[in-house]
Specification:
Layout (H helix, E strand, L loop, with lengths): L3 H9 L4 E4 L6 H15 L5 E5 L6 H7 L3 E4 L5 H5 L6 E4 L11 H18 L4 E7 L6 E2 L15 H21 L3 E6 L2 E2 L5 H10 L4 E2 L4 E2 L2 E2 H10 L9 E5 L5 E2 H12 L5 E2 L5 E2 L5 H7 L6 H13 L19
Length: 326
């Protein structure tokens, strides 16, 4: 459910909201949250969701909630140009998994398409979803890299994500378009995420690789709320903010917590390295406050979900990847 501060922010926000790439892992819940908050605020705004909508039934489900949908391939320029204008845009479109072997498609999605979108929506405020993968691995002792740290993407996926940021930043300067670069690392839900992958490994008594021994996590609901609220913080040539929880989370510790809840002894392979892909969330906490769902709550929710055999989606995060091969 939307928080009071989200409802207040949406009440003060001028114009309709368009979600590009609304059919992915986060998009459907994001669209629903926006609609709920608008309804609770008692204001009139269109919520528009554009995607290929490859998941059967999703487009109809969103339509029933009063969300306007468009089934489009954003890489087809005639389809992109037919989308309605909106004063506020949440840009979720992108490609990660399956990059290896399809590098050209990944670059088209993550570097070419942003230029086309930035041109079409140059008069909008745009929240651009990005990733902590644009940073290099850093010593765990640093507690994560802050937004001012030099980027150092490893592998073509991460490189293409930095290209997405740079293209939007260029367009922001050229057209005076307010943007917000939203560097997410990692969102979690009952259906996917780092924590779910750890939980399933422990529950199924499969060895867990500790090579990437530390991670950042945030509940999807909190991440979506911050994305919507970020619309009021868009700026020229763009504000960059890490979006995650403020803890450096030990993979071993999380596995042991799940082990207690499952009455299982976690199995591990490899040892923790001295570096990991970590982001510092201090600026996010300053802007949006602490996430509402704590790490312990996430673990408890997911443990119960796994015990019950709840539905999950087969979209692994590959959080253990240290060479950028996605």
């Amino acid at each position: 459910m939307p928080s009071d501060v989200l409802i207040s922010d949406l009440s003060a926000l001028d114009g309709d909201i368009l979600i590009l790439g609304a059919g992915g892992k986060m998009g459907p819940a994001l669209a629903r949250l926006i609609k709920q908050a608008i309804d609770k605020a008692g204001v009139t705004k269109r919520v528009i969701a554009a995607s290929r909508f490859s998941e059967p039934g999703l487009q109809g489900e969103l339509n029933e909630l009063g969300i306007e949908t468009y089934a489009v391939d954003l890489l087809e320029d005639d389809q992109l140009q037919q989308l309605p204008d909106a004063k506020n845009v949440l840009y979720l479109a992108g490609q990660k998994f399956g990059t290896t072997g399809r590098e050209s498609f990944t670059w088209a999605m993550n570097a070419y398409l942003p230029g086309r979108v930035a041109e079409k929506y140059k008069n909008s405020s745009i929240v651009v979803f990005s990733t902590g993968n644009v940073y290099p691995l850093s010593p765990v002792s640093l507690g994560g890299l802050s937004e001012g740290h030099p980027t150092g993407p490893v592998g073509e996926y991460a490189q293409s994500c930095l290209a997405r940021e740079r293209i939007f930043q260029y367009s922001s300067t050229k057209y005076n378009t307010p943007i917000f670069i939203y560097r997410l690392n990692y969102a979690n839900d009952v259906t996917y995420g780092v924590l779910l992958e750890i939980a399933k490994s422990v529950h199924q008594q499969k060895p867990l690789d500790l090579s990437m021994g530390y991670v950042n996590v945030i509940w999807q609901g909190d991440a979506n709320e911050m994305a919507i609220r970020a619309l009021k913080h868009c700026a020229v040539p763009g504000k960059v903010v890490n979006i995650t929880g403020d803890e450096t989370v030990s993979v071993r510790w999380v596995a042991q917590e799940f082990g207690i809840l499952f009455n299982q002894t976690p199995q591990f392979i490899n040892e923790e390295k001295s570096t990991a892909l970590l982001s510092n969330a201090a600026e996010s906490v300053r802007l949006f406050g602490q996430p509402r769902v704590s790490l312990k709550q996430m673990i408890e929710i997911l443990a119960e979900w796994v015990k019950q055999g709840g539905k999950t989606i087969n979209k692994p995060t590959h959080f253990q990847e240290r060479e950028g091969q996605f």
